[in-house]
Design brief:
Radius of gyration: 23 Å
CATH architecture of the largest domain: Alpha-Beta Complex
Strand content: 15-25%
Length: 431
């Protein structure tokens, strides 16, 4: 690992101590005394510094975060996938001092004991509505809004707009009722998160390495008679055994289900010659993958091979263009129009010829698509990490090719970190 100086990286400037001619590391999971791996204090310090920088360049006085990815980014705390859709945890960060964290019941006590980087006086238990299960009339939203207003006054930023990423409507109304001006805080947090430190890049590389291994297991097991749901179960087992902390979703799509892409899995049984594609969405220490691969069952047809070749060409031309200073509209223009591969318009084809940032969230900046990039181009910068994905249905209707590569933007191009073989259509258990 490089000896990064967070002060050099707050604005997204990669440390001059990093030698990009070296491979990006994918070390083991254990902490060891004989080599440097992830420096978690440095990681947390970088993320707080980036958030402070993003706040300073915004018009906000503070951000109030209910999005678990933002909470983890600011506080270095997590209580698992269970909380992702509950909107029950929240954090407040003014940029003038350390963050406040309200966590679910006893988790607050746990953080005071086991998370020494957090100020124990700022680790509080909190509860709101649990997506409406607790009615507004219970008074928890009002109580929380009043407490937040008092803290903002103490920090000297109560007269400035408060950025909020996501929240339940009663919480929004309660914040407005105490006189706070509410604005979109998600954009500020995305500003902070779009440039990764080398610790984050190594974690993303390790996350991809876990999926490399899962695809090896998929390839060995992909045979006639096995079902899509069985492959999802196998991949989930392999991922958790390898250190994944959250298998968010695995798409397993095959045969006639490939076109149009349904974005799910079923109990369909694989048959000889099927084209099958998978998307593995999981995280290692919070850092996610979005990693498609297409494999055929035993054999392939000329139409399937042609579909794969075209999808590969589309992704390769995009990868070749990735470098600092490039804009997303130029990459999107290299991809086919929706009508060229069977869709009525770009909205229906959204997500098929696609690029998106990956980090603590599955979709970060930049977003690359013919739907949005022409009207709102975005400049690519060193230190961004994003996925590029393409899709092409087979001309005979028997399958479709789906490929995705994650790339790290370097000073003179990019580095691919998704390494399971994909230059040619992979035939599993050829016969």
């Amino acid at each position: 690992m490089p000896n990064d100086d967070n002060a050099n990286m707050i604005k997204g400037e990669m440390s001059p101590n990093w030698n990009w001619t070296r491979p990006i590391a994918a070390p083991g999971h254990m902490a060891v005394d004989f080599e440097e791996r992830i420096d978690f204090d440095r990681l947390r310090g970088y993320r707080v510094a980036r958030t402070r920088w993003a706040l300073q360049k915004s018009e906000l006085g503070a951000v109030l975060c209910f999005d678990n990815n933002n909470i983890r980014y600011i506080t270095g705390s997590v209580i698992g996938e269970w909380s992702r859709d509950k909107i029950c945890r929240y954090a407040l960060f003014t940029g003038n001092s350390e963050p406040y964290l309200w966590d679910f019941g006893s988790a607050a006590t746990h953080h005071r004991l086991f998370s020494p980087w957090l100020d124990p006086d700022r680790c509080k238990a909190g509860m709101l509505g649990l997506r409406g299960s607790v009615a507004e009339e219970a008074g928890l939203f009002k109580q929380a809004a009043e407490e937040i207003k008092q803290l903002l006054q103490a920090e000297g930023v109560a007269d400035m707009p408060l950025g909020v990423d996501i929240c339940e409507p009663p919480m929004m109304f309660a914040l407005q009722a105490v006189g706070l001006e509410i604005r979109d805080g998600q954009q500020t947090m995305l500003d902070a998160r779009q440039i990764k430190s080398m610790d984050e890049i190594v974690l993303l590389n390790m996350s991809a390495a876990i999926v490399d291994g899962a695809y090896q297991g998929i390839a060995e097991a992909l045979k006639p008679g096995v079902r899509e749901n069985e492959m999802v179960a196998l991949a989930s087992k392999l991922l958790y055994e390898s250190g994944s902390d959250d298998v968010e979703a695995i798409n397993a799509v095959s045969g006639e289900r490939c076109s149009p892409h349904p974005h799910n899995f079923t109990d369909r049984m694989y048959r000889p010659g099927d084209q099958a594609f998978f998307d593995v969405i999981q995280s290692y220490l919070g850092y996610r993958t979005c990693y498609y691969r297409t494999l055929n069952v035993g054999s392939s047809t000329p139409a399937q091979e042609d579909a794969y070749r075209r999808a590969r060409e589309w992704i390769d031309v995009a990868i070749e263009m990735v470098r600092p200073g490039m804009t997303t509209d130029k990459i999107a223009a290299k991809w086919p129009k929706a009508t060229e591969f069977g869709f009525a318009n770009e909205m229906e084809a959204f997500g098929l010829q696609f690029g998106h940032g990956v980090g603590l969230a599955l979709h970060e900046r930049p977003i690359i698509s013919r739907l949005v990039s022409f009207e709102n181009p975005f400049e690519i910068e060193e230190g961004m990490v994003f996925a590029l994905e393409t899709y092409c249905p087979a001309a005979d209707g028997n399958g479709a090719a789906r490929i995705e590569e994650e790339v790290v933007v370097t000073p003179d191009g990019c580095r691919v970190i998704t390494l399971f073989p994909a230059q040619e259509l992979f035939i599993a258990n050829r016969y």
